[in-house]
Every structure is written in C-alpha cells, then in structure tokens.
Amino acid sequence: MPFTPFHLGPGLALKAVGGRHFSLTMFGVTQVAMDVEPLVHMLRGDSILHGITHSYAGATVIALAALSLGRPFCWMALAYWNRIASLRWLNGLRVSTRIGWIPALTGAFLGAYSHVFLDSLMHADMRPWWPFAAGNGLLDAIPVGWLHLLCLGLGVMGAMVLVAVFVWNKIAIET
Ligand SMILES: [Zn+2]
Question: In this structure, which residues have their CB less than 5 angstroms from ion ligand 1?
C-alpha cells in the first residue's frame, strides 16, 4: 500500500474535479479489492506481498471485476446510506443510489491504476509492468513520508472543495 485509506485522498480530489462523472464509491470499492491480495499474503506470512494484482495488467482485471461485482454492492451501500440520511438532520446528504456507466468506469479504472502508481512509489516487491517488464522504475522516486502527505493533502483539498460545492448548491436552492 500506502495503507488503503490513504488512496482515498486522491479519490476525493478526483471527485472534486470529476463531479458526477466520477464515482467515489466505485473508487473506494476498487481500493479495497486491490489490497485483498497483499492482505492474504500478509496473513500467510509470505515474503512477497504485492503480486500480479499490483501490476497495471492485474489492476485492469480488478477494475473489470469491481465494475461487475462491486457496482451492485455500491448501490446497496448507497441505499443503506440514504436510510441513515433519512434522519431529519442528515436529510440534505441523501444521494442517488444508481451509479451510471461513465462514473462507474472512471471510478473503477482511475481507482485501480492510481493504486498501482502510488504503491509502485514505495514497494520494492512490485512489478507494475508485469508481464511485459520486470522491475519497478518508480521505486523511491519520492520519500514515503512525502507520498503520505501528498495523499493526505489531496484528500483535504478535495474534501474542502466538495463541502464548498455542497454548501453553494444548498444556498442556491434555498435563495
Ligand atoms: Zn496496495
């Protein structure tokens, strides 16, 4: 990884830029799917944690799996969220439970490829260009601390933009 939640930082920034054309829910589900393999290797005590799922080829398969299996799961999760948001003081936070193909595609593929890119900056056991090339040319391109700060910074900026847009729209509706 960066520890899986750090990946959501760039996701929030992408949501701020992409708006309704980008599904943050699909992005999040894809991050979790990407890190299932390292988790299994970790539990088994294997020396190599990042296998073929952490290559661009493997990430393509994960993104396609997230599209077919993860999309209905996202719909259920969003419906559940709406049940929570139906409480009076959260009512303004209700969302559409359907995720169209464009936001699903951008969420899943940007999620999978950004995951490989960010992880390849810090994990020596990764082979991002498998099966076409060995090695990981981006390893240590930036210090790990900076990488985490970058993810965190993108998340804070993205969240601020999303809150600002939400408040702006609410004011526009009410005036
Ligand atoms: Zn990972």
Answer: 1, 35, 119
